[in-house]
C-alpha cells in the first residue's frame, strides 16, 4: 500500500498544477469510506473538509495518514468542524477560529500554511459559514456577523500579499443562476440580499471566485439535498466556493466540481469542488 502511494505521488508530481479541494463531508464518521475513495482515486494536493460532526479526539487521523495525507482539524462534537489535509506533507496551523466574538465556540474556521507545489508555501483556510435559517432571527444575525468577521480576517490576509485560498461551504448562493430554482430558494437565508451583499464585499476587496471565473454562465451545482429526489432531478445549487487572493488568482488554471461523487452510495449531499493553480 505504501509503495503504491509513493508511486502515485511520483506520477502526480509530474503535473505542475496544484489541485485544492473543498469538500463538505456531512459527517466524517458516516462518510469516511467515500472520503478515502476520493483521496485514493483523485489527485488532490490539499483537501479542505467541513461539517466533520466529530470531536477532536474522534477524528480519524490514522486513516487519513494511511491515505497519504497530513491533517490539522478543528472538531466539535455532533456539529460543525473543519479540517485541512495535505498530500505527502503536514499542514502548519496558523489560525483557529475567527476573532471578534470571544463567546463563539463553533468550530468553523481553520487556516493553515501548506506547500505550494513550487518549493514555497501558501495559505489555505477551510471554512464553514453558518446556514442562517430560520430568518429573520438570531441564527441569521449570527450568519451576517460571521461574514463580517471573515471579511476582517480576509483583509488581513490580503495585506500579507501571499497566495491564499479561502475554501469552504459558504452557505451563500451568490447569483440567481447558481440555483435550480430562484422561486424555491427565495425565502432561504442562503439567498437573501444581506447574505449576497456580504459575499460581494469579499470579492470587491480583491478575492476571486474561482468557479465563477471559469464558469461565468453559472448553472453548475455543488450541493443537492437528500429530500424530494433533488439529486435525481439535478435540483441543486452552488454554495461551496474557493476564493483566491490576487497572487493565487494569477495562477488560476481551472476550477470545477467532481459531481459523480455525489451519486455514490451513502455520499455527502455536497460534491468535492476544486481549483487548479499553476
The CATH superfamily label reads Endonuclease/exonuclease/phosphatase
- Helical fraction equals 25-40%
Coarse shape: globular
CATH architecture: 4-Layer Sandwich
- In DSSP terms (H or I, runs of 4 or more residues), the helix count works out at 9
In angstroms, what separates the terminal alpha carbons? 29 Å
Would you state the CATH class?
Alpha Beta
Judged by helices, strands and strand pairing, the structural class is alpha+beta
* CATH topology annotation: Deoxyribonuclease I, Chain A
Side by side, the strands of the main sheet go 3-4-2-1-14-13
Major sheet size, sense and barrel closure: 6 strands, mixed
Instruction: Count every beta strand, where a strand is a DSSP E run of 2 or more residues.
Output: 14
What ranges have pLDDT less than 50 throughout 5 or more consecutive residues? Answer: 1-14
How many domains is the backbone divided into?
Answer: 1
What is the average per-residue confidence, as pLDDT, rounded to a whole number? 94
Q: Output the helix-strand order.
A: HEHEHEEEEEHEHHEHEHEEHEE
Q: Compute the gyration radius: what is it?
A: 17 Å
% residues in beta strands = 25-35%
Domain Endonuclease/exonuclease/phosphatase: 21-270
Pfam family, one: Exo_endo_phos
GO molecular function: DNA binding; double-stranded DNA 3'-5' DNA exonuclease activity; endonuclease activity; metal ion binding
Protein name: Exodeoxyribonuclease-3
